[in-house]
């Protein structure tokens, strides 16, 4: 059985859908907190089980009979996220999974200014010491995250952001398809993957230029001080803890943490990944 956690989320749902084109659906199981919301999965013929990272015993039951477990990282911060991931790893090991896969991040490192990248690094260390073969899927930074960060600024004509650096923004749908390919490959990918990224790293200035070209009018790129950006972001309704976390994206990008590109994603897809220009064109 191939288990995918968070199977009704944006990423997990895509992984299951693509996986169903590669292996018999009878081998696929979605582990989710609320099976009552899984009609799309059951319509595919996929088995659905209740599994909640915060309820470790539910995970052991959800992972029963697992050949491989793909853990989609929790949408939490800091030690809470690490604790939830450890629970999932322990449950997969207890269930006898032969391999554990985990959706990590291309910028994963212990001292990253971007807090989630540091917690991904710690989870990779937990995987490395769990005595079960593992694959850490080093995802490129989601292009959808970029769109949430800039809000409607591309449409209003001025992109006001802190100083940044190049980021290989990558479409989540492409990563879901690649994750499914790796999961179906039965352990051909061992350890930490290369960065699974789009083919180009771009800056916020590049994104403003893309939007200008698509819209046929100028979208200015203006650099603002870090703390001013945090203040404005909080005033727009973003909780302070998340505004400061998002500032970490810009700080880590300045250090080149998200600038890498690699052909691995293109090879997995058998085509070019979606570009950031394509993403921008779809939203402005």
Query: Do you know the CATH topology of the domain at 2-139 and 172-192?
Result: Rossmann fold
Ranges where pLDDT stays below 50 over 5 or more residues in a row are none
Structure summary, number of beta strands:
9
Specify the CATH architecture of the domain at 2-139 and 172-192. Answer: 3-Layer(aba) Sandwich
Sheet/helix structural class: alpha/beta
Q: What portion of residues is helical?
A: 40-55%
Strand content bin: 5-15%
Q: How many helices?
A: 13
- CATH level 1 name of the domain at 2-139 and 172-192: Alpha Beta
Average predicted local confidence, pLDDT: 95
- Global outline: globular
| First-last Cα distance | 42 Å
Order of secondary-structure elements: EHEHEHEHEHEHHEHEHEHHHH
Give the neighbour order of strands across the main sheet: 3-2-1-4-5-6-8
Topology:
Blueprint: E1 2-5, H1 10-19, E2 28-32, H2 39-44, E3 47-50, H3 56-62, E4 68-71, H4 78-94, E5 99-105, H5 115-128, E6 134-139, H6 143-150, H7 153-156, E7 158-161, H8 172-184, E8 191-192, H9 204-215, E9 220-223, H10 226-235, H11 240-254, H12 264-269, H13 276-283
Parallel strand pairs: 1-2, 1-4, 2-3, 4-5, 5-6, 6-8, 7-9
Helix pairs in contact: 1-8, 3-4, 4-5, 9-13, 10-11
Structural commentary:
- This protein is an alpha/beta fold and 284 residues long.
- It has a domain at 2-139 and 172-192: Rossmann fold (3-Layer(aba) Sandwich), CATH 3.40.50.
- Helix content is 46%, strand content 14%.
- The protein is built from 13 helices and nine strands.
- The chain has helices at residues 10-19, 39-44, 56-62, 78-94, 115-128, 143-150, 153-156, 172-184, 204-215, 226-235, 240-254, 264-269, 276-283, and strands at residues 2-5, 28-32, 47-50, 68-71, 99-105, 134-139, 158-161, 191-192, 220-223.
- The strands form two sheets. The chain has a seven-stranded parallel sheet, sandwiched between helices. Strands 7-9 form a two-stranded parallel ribbon.
- The mean pLDDT is 95.
